[in-house]
# Entry
Amino acid sequence: MGVFKVPIEVSDLQWSRVERLTAWVDTGAFYTNVPRPLLESLGIRPHKRERFMLADGRVGENDIGHMWVRVGDRTEITLVLFAEPDTEPLLGAYTLEGLALNVDPLHRKLVPMEWLPRFEVLPA
# Structure
């Protein structure tokens, strides 16, 4: 699948400050990532630290926090990875699922899910 960029808005959990940016869409990435300095300027703080394997096979650790994200007319609280300062923002699979958006690779755009994934309630 080809990658493409989309405009997004990110904010702290109180919506006290909103930042507009352009992010790469990457369904191969689990978390959305935003450069640490931008997240810190919005007042977003990490709540945990996780180990990750990078595309080149190296393993590292990154902080993770919560933020609001808006793509088009859809808004959701999502997990965000605190990326290095020179990293371009990236919209990952976890956020896309939360926003109920699919990737249309032919037209290089995001489209609403036609239906939400099914879930079953297991008997007690």
User: Anything to note?
Assistant: The CA atoms of residues 97 and 113 lie 9 Å apart. Helices lie at 36-41, 93-98. DSSP finds two helices and nine strands in the chain.
